[in-house]
Write a structure and sequence with these properties.
Helix content: 55-70%
Shape: globular
Radius of gyration: 20 Å
Structural class: mainly alpha
Number of helices: 10
Largest sheet: 2 strands, antiparallel
Strand content: under 5%
Order of helices and strands: EEHHHHHHHHHEEH
């Protein structure tokens, strides 16, 4: 059974979620440092970028989660800051990170898409660490099932409470029924995307295409994994909020790729005519 607690320091409990989130940011920093070798994007540059991404990403992700669970946080306002225990919405964090990249690029007097391409190379790896933290923490859990991969969370965990409330298990059950490890499924999808983005960036694709590629690919996996989620989800017209967000991101990615290829083709035509 996954255990949300990494270790205890006296009375202080260190949660795996916070540990994995920190490791995800460090993995992203390491990716940027390697990609920035031989360029002005040195360690100081990458560290500054990480700061802005942390502020924008965590802030946006937490704001979206609090908005989606406002009743709970209205009763316990001090818990809003406990991001180490889980409670982040990815697309909220992505929106916050976009704002952070725009501010960072403006401060550095760089083109937005140049910085976005560089930044997004590390996103899948950091996200994979985050989803591993979700799996250990017991949040963002899967629907009942999973066959041999099914995970049983302990009594009083979030999956246990959900299943007890819906009548799937009795309130004396020692553990939750097995659920899909959907967090690990998504982590695996991110680990597929990570080398693809690195390859595209190292091939010096036209500016904006690496970010557009991510926008076109990540939402596909997220859209089809959403039905395997077992936690309570906001829904409109039969789709979850994350699925609607995935469709929007996918459309944006495809439009950006189409625009990029059309722009490149037009530039080639002008060169041939001249």
């Amino acid at each position: 059974m996954p255990d949300p607690i990494c270790l205890h320091l006296g009375k202080l409990a260190i949660h795996w979620y916070g540990v994995m989130m920190a490791l995800g940011f460090l993995a992203g920093l390491a990716t940027w440092v390697v990609l920035g070798r031989g360029t002005p994007r040195d360690l100081n540059y990458c560290s500054d970028l990480l700061f802005w991404i942390m502020v924008g990403g965590i802030g946006g992700a937490r704001l979206a989660y609090v908005a989606a669970n406002f009743g709970r946080f209205a009763a316990e306002p001090l818990s809003i800051v406990r991001v180490d225990q889980g409670g982040l919405v990815f697309y909220g964090g992505f929106a916050g990170a976009l704002v952070a990249v725009a501010v960072f690029a403006r401060r550095r007097r760089e083109r937005f898409w140049s910085v976005a391409d560089f930044t997004v190379t590390a996103l899948p790896l950091g996200h994979a660490f985050g989803r591993l933290g979700c799996w250990l923490n017991g949040c963002c859990y899967g629907a009942p099932g999973g066959g041999p991969l099914g995970v049983c969370y302990p009594i009083y965990s979030a999956p246990w409470w959900r299943q007890a409330e819906t009548g799937l298990i009795g309130r004396t059950a020692p553990a939750a029924a097995p659920v899909h490890p959907v967090q690990l499924y998504e982590a695996a999808w991110n680990l597929v995307l990570y080398p693809l983005l690195l390859y595209a960036y190292r091939r010096r694709w036209r500016e904006g295409r690496v970010a557009a590629l991510y926008l076109a690919l990540y939402p596909l996996g997220r859209f089809f994994l959403e039905p395997l989620r077992g936690d309570e989800r906001l829904r409109w017209d039969g789709l979850t909020a994350a699925q609607w967000g995935s469709l929007a991101a996918l459309a944006a990615g495809l439009l950006l790729l189409l625009r990029s290829f059309r722009s490149a083709a037009a530039a080639d035509d002008r060169r041939r005519e001249s």
